[in-house]
From TrEMBL:
Primary location class: cytoplasm
Protein name: Pyrroline-5-carboxylate reductase
Enzyme Commission number(s) of this protein: 1.5.1.2
Role of this protein: Oxidoreductase that catalyzes the last step in proline biosynthesis, which corresponds to the reduction of pyrroline-5-carboxylate (P5C) to L-proline using NAD(P)H. Proline is synthesized from either glutamate or ornithine; both are converted to P5C, and then to proline via pyrroline-5-carboxylate reductases (PYCRs). PYCR3 is exclusively linked to the biosynthesis of proline from ornithine.
Location(s), subcellular: Cytoplasm
Myb/SANT-like DNA-binding domain boundaries: 9-82
GO biological process: L-proline biosynthetic process
Keyword Oxidoreductase attached: yes
Keyword annotations from UniProtKB, A to Z: Amino-acid biosynthesis, Cytoplasm, NADP, Oxidoreductase, Proline biosynthesis
Amino acid sequence: MDESGIKKQNWDVKETELFLEILKELDMKKCLDGRKVRNNKLFKVAHRRMTAAGYHRSVDQLKFRWKLLKSAYYKCKREPDSPAPTKIQGWWRYEKTMVAIMESRHSLVGAGVNSDRNDEVTEDSDGDASMLHWPQPCPDNSTHNLDLIIKMDPEMDTQLKIGFIGAGNMAFGIAKGILSGNVLPVNVKVSAPSSRNLGRFQEMGVATTHSNVEVVCGSDLVFVAVKPHLVPVVLNEISQHVTDRHIIVSVAAGVTLATLEELLPENSVAIRLMPNLPCVVQEGALLFARGSHAKPEDGALLRSLLHRCGLVEEGPEAWIDIHTGVSGSGVAFVYLFAEALAEGAVKMGMPSALAHSIAAQTVLGAGRLLRDSGKHPAQLRSEVCTPGGTTIYGLHTLEQGGVRASTMSAVESATERARELGRKSATAGSRK
Ligand SMILES: NC(=O)C1=CN([C@@H]2O[C@H](COP(=O)(O)OP(=O)(O)OC[C@H]3O[C@@H](n4cnc5c(N)ncnc54)[C@H](O)[C@@H]3O)[C@@H](O)[C@H]2O)C=CC1
Ligand SMILES: O=C(O)[C@@H]1CCC=N1
């Protein structure tokens, strides 16, 4: 629809009242956060509810109507004694609901927040309905509300386009986790230079390409899932196509937010995520840190997207390398232990296949009980140990072998290595 079509609308009272009721119910004012994609989602929900009620307004028409209503609200607030705004006929009918919508947000972000006035449109404003912009950060509970809206309305999630640069094990793990949620394969695209790893993505219905730029141009959120030394190469390649629409999420071990931000255009939204391989079975442990231009809402969006991958936490960047040691790499330490358990059983005469399946189940069961009981591992360990029984004999042997010290050292070495990789990629990035 052209702009004049958006502006020249005749809304009747019932239609406007319904529109406002929908916005109120969606907590619209609290959820608008300046990111076009998210704002669009909310207006699309409103659009579909209006359509279901028999009112056929485009998303842009709804945005423009909202803009006029908002403008009228501000005018009334600024000049309470002046005649009602003429642009909205019968304004007095809507004023109460508008106040309820607008002021629910003020009570959350505190008094004195009036930068919304920047949004005010005058009657002869240019009517750019896509310029809705809320400079205040969204309070956390509003993002939960938005997540709820998205979850309750699966079609909404299909709006977010997700890209993967790199088609290896970690990209596959995250993609599998994401696709087990609301995200549809049609909204995901993966790139890698060779076709070697692309087949398993195609089997999930995900589009593949050899062009990283194509992934960036078609995505809102892009996972950079190449080996750490390739991150500078890839970011240099895609940088000129990264815009304020994008959220760039790097999973590369060691590569710091400072390096990512240096290689991306100014003000880019970057997030550093450390996942681990069990995302494939939705039992991952993921920790992320936001870059200096990533808002809490960007973190909430990522968290919501990844929630099917496993435990998702946010923390300071300094913890990401530690998480790499304890969990990204830690998974391999647990596999080593599982393998050794099985080999011990084989040594004692059990068939290998049975030994390995029992070892896997033992690790799984121990892990689930540890997580679900919330007990300290030492407590659970003591519950297994009968005085003078078998377990304490086995534990004594493990302690003699220094299992505890070497596991701690393994986490330390992996963490240090992540830090070293970070320094290397920073140097590589600054040479570009
Ligand atoms: N494997 C794991 O358990 C974990 C890996 N990570 C991180 O994930 C990243 C990827 O690791 P993996 O998936 O294990 O590696 P991988 O070797 O399995 O996959 C790397 C992928 O990158 C692709 N690639 C290479 N050059 C490229 C380019 N120029 N453009 C686009 N794609 C390119 C390869 O074709 C391959 O598909 C690494 O940075 C690693 O630190 C993080 C946590 C755990
Ligand atoms: O070994 C690595 O470097 C990657 C990061 C964490 C797990 N795998």
